TrEMBL record:
Compartments (UniProt record): Cytoplasm; Golgi apparatus membrane; Cytoplasmic vesicle, COPI-coated vesicle membrane
Protein's name according to its UniProt entry: Coatomer subunit zeta
Family: Belongs to the adaptor complexes small subunit family.
GO BP annotations listed: intra-Golgi vesicle-mediated transport; intracellular protein transport; retrograde vesicle-mediated transport, Golgi to endoplasmic reticulum
Keywords attached to this entry: Cytoplasm, Cytoplasmic vesicle, ER-Golgi transport, Golgi apparatus, Membrane, Protein transport, Transport
Amino acid sequence: MEGLLLEPTLYTVKGMAILDNDGNRILAKYYDKNVFATAKEQKTFEKNLFNKTHRANAEIIMLDGLTCVYRSNVDLFFYVMGSSHENELILMSVLNCLYDAVSQILRKNVEKRVVFDNLDIVMLAMDEICDGGIIMEADSSAVVQRVALRTDDIPLGEQTVAQVLQSAKEQLKWSLLK
């Protein structure tokens, strides 16, 4: 084979991870089961990735055949991984969206403790950005808007039964307090 031409694909992201300043996983999602089949392989890769990046002053690294872009904060490291032939600018836009969305959700207080306190919303943000390796959204404000929906703003037909009951309880409580 003279020139290996790869077919274009929507599956650009192989994984996203948030690690603490000791290299321990806070949150990670891997989308390609062929790359890291087991949790042990994932942990080994994360440890290796952290050891290579925690003292470096760069934004990108090639590791184990993957292109990894990363960004650090006070005590957190944000990573987005793609294949070795993936466009680094696309991966960087996903990383910036993830970091900016988490920053907006946590009101610019991006620290380990605060991320743990709001882990459910951060997980939702990660799911809104990337689904199965396909980039769904790269605009952080749109991601924040989707994960921070209040039940008051959702039309009645689109609410779940639990949301409708909760809304009815609140309305009844406020009508009795008047």
